[in-house]
Amino acid sequence: MGEELHVMVKYYVQMGYGHHIQTYCKHHLLKCPRDPTLLFWHAYGLLLEEAYVEALKCLESLKQYRELEVAVLAAMIYAHQHCKVVDEDQVHILSQCLELAEKNINEKGLLFAATLYWHLGGHGNLQKAQEFVGRVLRVQPQYAHAKCLHAWLGLEGISMSHSQGEQEKHATDVEWNIAESSLQTFDEVLARGSNIDALLGRASFYELKQDYAKALGELNQVIVLHSWFLPALCQKARIAMLMQDWDLVQETAHVILQKDPSNIEGMRMRVQVMLCFENKMSEAASVLADMLKSIEQLETRNANLCLQVAQPFARLAGRGGIIVLQKTLMFIERAQRLKPKEAVFAVELADQQFLLGDYKAALSTYKMAAGLNELNMEAMYGIIQCLLVLGEVKEAEQQLEFLVEVSVSMGKSGRLSYLLAQLTWWKQQEHHHCRDLLDESYDVQMGMMRSKKGFEMYTELNPDRLLGIVHLYICLSRYECKGPHVEKSYSLQHSLHILEHLLTSVPGLVAAHLMLARVLIHLDDFEAAHQPLQSVLVLDPANASAQLLLAKVYVNQGNFAIAKQSLEQALSKDFIVRETVVYHVLQAQILVNCLQFEEALKVLEAAMCLPGMRQVTIDSKSSYFNCKKHMEMTTDADRIMVFLLLAEVHVQFNHFPEATKTIQEAMNEFSGCPEEVQVVIANCDLALGRGDVDAAVAILSQVSQGSNYYVPAKVALADIYMKHQHDKARFSKCYMDIVQLFPNSKTYLMLGEAFMRIDESEQAMKAYVAASKESPQDASVASQVGHALVATHNYGKAMEHYESALPIVEDGLAKLDLCYDVADLYFKLKNYERAEELLNKLLANVEDGCFLQENLKSTKTLMLCLRASLLLSKVQNIQRKQGSATQVMLNARDLHNNYPLELHGHHSDAIRDQKHVAADIYFQFAQECEVQKDVQKAIALLNEALKCNPAHSAASLTLAKIHLSRGEVTDCEQKCSALLRADPFNEEAGEILVNLMLHRELYDSAILHFQQILEHNPNHYTALAQLIQLLWRAARSEEVEPYIQRAEKGTPTASSHAGLNFCKGLLACYSNNPCEAHQMLNNARADLEWGKKAIFIMVEIYLNIDNELGWEESNLDGPTVVNEDAIRAAHKLLSENRDLEPPRSTRQAVLECYATMATRQKHDIESALMRLQKIAREDTIGLEKEKISNMLAMATGLTMLKQVAKAKNQLRAIDRMPFKWDDADAFERAWLMLANIHMQAGKQEAVEELCKKCIKYNKACSKAWELLGLMMEKNHMYTEAINFYKNAWKCQKQRSPAIGYRLAFAYLKDKQYIKVICVCHKVLQACPHYPKIRKEVLDKARVHVRP
């Protein structure tokens, strides 16, 4: 029990739980009724409760025990000294006895006494304890208990030193040497066996070193090895709180309360999480009520504990947490009942009354506290604060003067500085001095806070006071110089720093988030303002203030529809917002944007009647303390907006007298205010609206150089000179005046931009150079100058500027941004090596541990890293460094995955931007995997990209293509359909979907798709070419002409566009008009996009100029005549195209073989066949389309060499392949050639099957109709032959003399002589010298029709 008793008593003493000690000892005294150690600690528990008489009685009976004699005597002296009436004689006697006892005490007695002195506290007692332990260790150097106690005393000394602010460097070095020695001692004890005291000592050492992770590790060992020791869990929760690991605090507190539902520390931790992290006021109040009951039962006379519990929770709840303050007030009232004469409890009571807004009661209580203890400075500060809030400034000033004199001897006080700042602001004196006082107040308060830990730190943090300081900073910012020529407001920037620090410690403080949003709005950083407002809505979904501020942000960003929704949300959550000026202002702005001027007028007239519109509420210096709901606070900016909007609406109705009257009222109302210049500029705009430019110029010219708004007024004047008077000289003179008055980098940049607007690029460059000289180390200035140079296309100067700026600008995020800009410029200029070097340097700097830890939580930094990684991978891909590019992509992906939590609370736009860049990274990584044939990984990465950005069309398209290549048609179709729903005119998705339609033989659906595209964009030539092909194959080519005409009228230059000429040539080719086709395609052949396609078709026209299948058989009337001119032209075109096509283009090579075979010379045909066979061997991984065209060409050559059997094998192989739309021409030609061979062999059924297959996929296949007709004719079935020949004749637009001849001959055999004559006339009209038709057909028909 010795070890257990020791650690339990030590913990209870540390926590100040006197009654817990008594209860613990009583419990064990039931087993050992006369144990002197238990009786002593029971008496010590009475001492902690200040029950000195009872304690003395208990201690008197223990004097007989020799081992306890020194401890008992010391405890009795302590008790006598703290009694209301000190018995000096008894103290003297006891002191003499103590001196004698100390000389004769044994080792156990020394350790016991040392333990007591340690617990009594104070430097003197600590030294006494160290002396006794030293005596023990000199006798028994390996005594484990003594060694542990000695180590603990060393740590205690350091802790006491730090808590009292002793931070001298040399002392700190000595202290840490002692601490290291203590750690070594604990290790030595643990080396001899498990020891809970040593483990707790190690945890305390690491806590002192602020190595909280290791401290948790030690405590976890205690929890595992000594599960009975519940305080270890309490200590763990406290360490987790120091780490701000709120989840761990919550989890540990839950475990504590499961084991001991009345555990005070466990309940304190639960309340801490609820107030500090979760903003659960009602639940916290409920737990506080339970905690008060526990304290009443377990610590019946512990007033200090009530104070320790109430103080931090009251500060965290703030003036908005009334329900919590009501509970903490009960703690203080209980403490005050226990110790009614203690001023500290009265001061705390007054502090909480002040937070509740009961300033008169607080003033009375502060005065009572001052009466109890005239030296209590906190009571005096409280009295002055209440006087200021209640408007009794003179009395407050008098008391402050006295306190200032007193403070000279007492040192600086943060609260005193804050009160002086408030008084200075009240008296409207020296705003800079007021700001300095606020700075001093904050610095002193932070210094006090840093010396505290745990709950005490939150008491010193005092969020409500910090928010008051920030509020005063915001008020001061109104009087700071405004304009683009100055840095952002010091007061607002410092407010930002304070609020960010506050929210780091108290992330669940709604009031701080709201205040942060207001500061960011004042700084015009509307994007950043989203983050705290979203955090508020997470913490308190019913918060109307957040919705109002969100509406203001959206209005300033121009998102009026979303602003209207936020305004409606605010109204639904709290109807009181309808009584605020800001609500009416926002509603009016939304209505004005929607051009609902009558409604806006009603809203603004109602706003003019609201309370506060005729008094300057923000200038009420106590407004922060008087307003419980800050959304109700009307600012001067809101009041001015009412006047300005009202004037604007009057102007819309041409009510210029009313508008003038409104502006005049505003000028009277805000005369002398910092915002007066806004009214001046509005008056200027009104004059411009009336057309009185001279009056507008006169108004703005009256703004003096001493005004904080001189620069905005001068900029507005410059705009008038430029827009209304077109006076470039005066326009530039305004900016030169600004530079003359404020010569800095920002004004020079403004001057440069002004010169750029009037096309004075040389002067602009001089201004930009001057800006660089003014701030050579400012990366943002260097970046702006570089952008300006790039905008003027001075790329050489831009690179020189960037290269000279990079080495000298200050390190930080802005420099990394600059580095990215330079790398991006080099990438665009195709200097990939330098771009890669800069990007590697950028990412190396970001990966530096310190920078990463400090800045990666910034969304901008994270975005920069991702964008830099993306650009670097592009650079390395271009340089063929696939391995390096892949590694960069992996790093970027890890960066995105490892830091997603940093965006918690950010506005959705920030999250969206990061996810979009991440999607680009995943997509590029997927492309790499696709190149490396790792399809599965590519699919996974593309899906990740779509998770990040569902609208990433490139990823969706790539995924659809992969699905299509794998035969997963349904998945492919789903992806394309989704893309087309989002973008109905997405070309690539539409093309894939059309291919799927064609694959399923849904030709009408495909035609409809292209028709819809052309309805939307008549000049979409890719769609037009596809439509021409589809309509031709559907035998509906006559429907194409309206689309051609619409395309010609679509743009003035359409007639000369290569795309339209190609489409016309394609239509002419299908219409059997080779001359017109040649002319149109020749117009398109020089174009990069359409030239290759046009050349290929022209080559096919030249090689088959008569539109006959002359490759596989001789013409009907004899051998085919070789057209040498056509062959030469084909070779010339192919040689032109060779440079445009890829080196191994199969189509180019196949056409060259066709041109070679066109000579019909045996050696040429054999040479071509050898080349085709070589292509087939080499192109083992080629596309199926290329294989089919190659096989078809080989079959053609073999046919020409009369090797019909070999040709037939090639053609049968093609016939067995599944039909694909892309290869339709090749399939059709192969089927026709095979049908021809079967026809010669007399296999009519095979011929019929192949011809019907051709017609199935191309109803305009004239050769198929012709072959069917020929087959019918051979069977003397002339009527059926006529029908087939008529279809073939129609498909050829009645321009093929060969088909015309066959049709006429069939008519002759069928004795339809008149039709014979008509057809013959058409043939002879197209080809007057066509052989045989006149003699063998026409003349015979004429004979039969003559009477």
TrEMBL record:
Residue ranges annotated for the Tetratricopeptide repeat protein 21A/21B second ARM domain, each copy included: 287-558
Domain Tetratricopeptide repeat protein 21A/21B N-terminal ARM repeat: 9-249
Keywords, sorted A to Z: Coiled coil, Repeat, TPR repeat
Annotated ranges, domain Tetratricopeptide repeat protein 21A/21B fifth ARM repeats: 987-1103
Keyword Nucleotide-binding: no
Domain Tetratricopeptide repeat protein 21A/21B C-terminal ARM: 1129-1342
The TPR repeat ranges on this chain: 510-543, 745-778, 779-812
Residues annotated as domain Tetratricopeptide repeat protein 21A/21B fourth ARM: 781-946
Keyword Repeat on entry: yes
Coiled coil: 281-308
Record InterPro entries: ARM_TT21_2nd, ARM_TT21_4th, ARM_TT21_5th, ARM_TT21_C, ARM_TT21_N, TPR-like_helical_dom_sf, TPR_rpt, TTC21A/TTC21B
Pfam families in alphabetical order: ARM_TT21 (PF25058), ARM_TT21_2nd (PF25060), ARM_TT21_4th (PF25068), ARM_TT21_5th (PF25064), ARM_TT21_C (PF25063), ARM_TT21_N (PF25062)
Protein family: Belongs to the TTC21 family.
PANTHER family: STI2 PROTEIN-RELATED, TETRATRICOPEPTIDE REPEAT PROTEIN 21 HOMOLOG
Protein name: Tetratricopeptide repeat protein 21B
